[in-house]
Amino acid sequence: MNRCSFATRLANAYHKRPRGHRFTSSSPSLSLSLTTDLVNRLSRVDSSSAPDLDHAWAELRWLTEHVLRRRTVKCWRPASQVPPALLSDRAVLVATIDGDGRGNDAGHSRVDPFSEAEKARLQRMVDDRVVRNKPLQYVLGSQPFAGIEVRCKPPILVPRWETEEWTMRLLALIEDHISTSVARSFSILDLCSGTSCISLALAFNVSRRFPDLNLSVTAVDTEPRAIALGLTTRRHLDLPETVRYNALQASVFDAGLKDRLKPLALDGVFDLVVSNPPYVTLAEWAELEPVVKDWEDRKALVGKVDPGNSSSSSSTLSHEADIAAGVGYYPAIARIAKSVLREKTNESLCPKLVVEIGGDHQTQGVSQILREELGGNVSVWTDLAGHQRCVVSNDS
Ligand SMILES: C[S@@+](CC[C@H](N)C(=O)[O-])C[C@H]1O[C@@H](n2cnc3c(N)ncnc32)[C@H](O)[C@@H]1O
After folding, report:
1. Is-annotated flag, keyword Membrane (predicted)?
2. Residue 42 domain-assigned?
3. For labelling, which of 69, 112, 157, 371 has a CA lying 20 to 30 Å from the CA of 378?
């Protein structure tokens, strides 16, 4: 994968949008309204491409829903019960935002028009998008991910669709494994956990399917704000008592990490380790779009040489060392996995280690690292865009 397409892919996390028709000032019933103004402004968020009206309408709907969620008493219908389909009717959206009293009745559903304070709030959020180029997930404060709502706050990395895709794929394998296993407990370790999107989505979905299973998920990240965000998401999830969520502020390069981890697994050993570590090279970082560089933590994205193996700092690397630094986290991750994973006696349907990679250019190097450290068989998962996305270590 070349660097350009990599940069585009990261930026696409914010700009995945269908191309639609262009707005014309002759659109009926929309002239000179606040809604028209906001749609026009939102259609220009991505200044590198032509205005996108359909996406602007979709964003406006999400922002409006967000404002409505704050309502407690004033809504004829509780905000949490406003059906999304209602606001996807543009006439209802216009009536709600502009408060002109038209169009907000749809059958037996109704949304009260915005107050002045709510209009001001909506305008501030649109300013954040348009003027400050703030990612939508940071404006809304959350992102749906594999069935859960993950809290998002700058500068903690916004979960990407590729990660969600492989998490769902892994979930199916975990469920197959548990259905055919006699064990009544399962422990998952998530290294470089960020928002804890992977571990909490797995915990939520597995516990729904197997309510009697004892489940432990442990999220590890160096960044205290990531740990705090994971705990907030966990608090708002309806997880049963059978699920234990541990959030540990630590580095995968800490020599004593494995000794801190083992007591957090249910039987002192983990059944599965997952990781989406920083893997971007300095050259790739230089080409990323401002929306990524301005808002997301550089340390969440840029890989670095294992400090145990090199004295170079990641800001002074040669080209070759920069390429190597892109995969600098994987040896440490594989070593931790080796020291905390359960010794499998039978062939398992579930992998023992799944790591996300930056693309095809890292497959060979990471596969070799996993093979040397963990043995067994190594496979590669490709994402929906056709890029190699995960290297997976299996038992046999
Ligand atoms: C690419 S982000 C992934 C976040 C999350 N797992 C996801 O998929 O959205 C990498 C994360 O690794 C964390 N990190 C960076 N260096 C680390 C280290 N040495 N040990 C543990 N976590 C680290 C960053 O703070 C960041 O949250």
Report:
1. no
2. yes
3. 157
